[in-house]
Amino acid sequence: MFKKILVPLDGSPLSEEAVPFAANLASRLNAQLLLFRVLERGLLERDTHDSGFETETREYLELIKQRLVNDFGFNSELVKLRMVSGEPAEEIALFSHTEKCDLIVMASHGRSGLSRLIMDSVAAEVVRKAPVPVIIRHSRLREEFVGNPLLTPIVVTLDGTPTAESALEPAFELAQQYGCPLLLLRVLKPFVPVDELEEWFAENENKGQDYLDSHAFDSYRLKAMNYLEKVAAPLKAKLVQCDTALVVGDPSEEITKYVRAVEAKLLVIATQGHGDIYMFLLGSVADEVFQHSDVPVMLVHVASHPHNLKSTEEVATPV
């Protein structure tokens, strides 16, 4: 259940762009919002709690809280303020753990895609270290959740691997709690990976090369469709609506087009990388999708979510 959402702020207008989105989400989920500011060491030492900078930071967080109450009608009892001194990514991840947060929402700090974001901000470290999913909202996005929120779906990208399936559990829980559809999307590149159909080729090699050439992709497509249906089966038993979609083409282009076509509220992608998320995101499909997608992207780090829905194949100072 998503009952506690952490929103890291650094005092910049850009970081504050995550606040309306987080407030919208929290209102729908009846969740608590934690507004969190990390002051890098040197700006505020822990033994100088009466410093002017600390007072200024406290007033800043209070101002954001009042904006939530006045502009969004948010229940002030559901907004908590915290600040600490330390290294931002470390403190954000630690706080999300000690406070048992369910989700972190951040704004993009880059204008040229997720690669720039990862290079220039603490977001990569937060995704890698935090024990919960991280939603990153690009600064250029329009207002989210337009239309009927109960009909606007969450899209999860799958590629047939357990790595991608790590995104299923948090996506399922959010869709279930939100009461909206869940769409499982797989994009096939327009060629057949031989290793995926090795058994099929062996079984049909006696039918000749012409048969193999003309039927290989159909078999590949059928295998992918069966995979999606098997993954979706246990979800369909628990959700009002869970559908699957299989498209052929360039992954980043097709994911972006599909998300736009179904007017999704959120795209969920699993990230891999054993201690180095840069290798997954830089130059990857996720980079292109984030740059062009019309919706926020939830990143689920595989190491933080080892138990997914199986398919067949220092303490913060209160303000």
UniProtKB/TrEMBL annotation:
A Pfam family per the record: Usp
Q: Which InterPro entries match?
A: Rossmann-like_a/b/a_fold, Universal_stress_UspA, UspA
* SUPFAM superfamilies xref list: Adenine nucleotide alpha hydrolases-like
Q: Where is the UspA domain?
A: 1-136, 153-301
The family database entries (CDD domains) matched by this protein are listed as:
USP-like
Q: Which domain of life is it from?
A: Bacteria
The family this protein is said to belong to: Belongs to the universal stress protein A family.
Q: Which PANTHER family does this chain map to?
A: STRESS RESPONSE PROTEIN NHAX, UNIVERSAL STRESS PROTEIN UP12
Q: What is this protein called?
A: Universal stress protein
Q: What is the lineage of its organism?
A: Bacteria, Bacillati, Chloroflexota, Chloroflexia, Candidatus Chloroheliales
